[in-house]
Specification:
The protein is α+β, with helices and mostly antiparallel strands. It contains six helices and eight strands, in the order E-E-H-E-E-E-H-E-H-E-E-H-H-H. A hairpin with a 2-residue loop joins strand 3 and strand 4. Helix 4 packs antiparallel against helix 5.
Length: 170
């Protein structure tokens, strides 16, 4: 009998606990790493679908927003090392790869780390800047204690006036 610790984020239908122990019988490591493993526990059948492992940071942006288009265009040009996967949330093709509801992703700026952690707002910008050559200096400055909180206050203020700016630019 082999005992493994699995994160419940990938277990469909489980409780939102941090992690759970599941006893698996006669499963090889290759079977555990496969994209879909059926696990029977307490007469329940769970299907484990781990999130895809990528090396790139995923940036979710509103491609229908003229402000966002211009800003993301600047960042895309700076992404010479292709460390970021850009996802236009307003496009219909993106519906299958979204970690949150579309309206939630359109309301604020979000990034997803290669480990699957979602970061939004000013901290999301800081995480994106860390990946971009020529912008890392800004990420270092904005990461000093207290700076992310101040930036978040400014970002929330911008979100309140963003609809008016969008109407003006369209």
């Amino acid at each position: 009998m082999v005992e493994h610790r699995l994160h419940t984020a990938g277990v469909v239908g489980s409780n939102p606990a941090a992690s759970t122990k599941i006893r698996l019988h006669y499963l090889s490591p290759a079977a555990l790493l496969s994209s879909s493993v059926n696990i029977c526990r307490r007469r329940q059948l769970f299907k484990l679908n781990p999130p895809p492992i990528t090396k790139a940071l995923r940036v979710f942006f509103d491609g229908s927003c003229p402000i966002c288009q211009k800003e993301i265009g600047i960042y895309k040009n700076a992404d010479t090392t292709a460390r970021i996967h850009w996802v236009d949330v307003s496009a219909e093709q993106a519906s299958g790869v979204l970690p949150l509801a579309r309206h939630a992703l359109l309301a604020r700026f979000h990034v997803q780390t290669p480990g699957g952690q979602l970061i939004s707002g000013a901290r999301g910008f800081i995480e994106m800047w860390r990946q971009l050559p020529g912008w890392r200096w800004l990420a270092r400055i904005c990461s000093i204690p207290g700076a992310p909180h101040i930036l978040e206050i400014g970002y929330c203020g911008f979100l309140k006036v963003r609809p008016a700016i969008q109407r003006y630019l369209r």
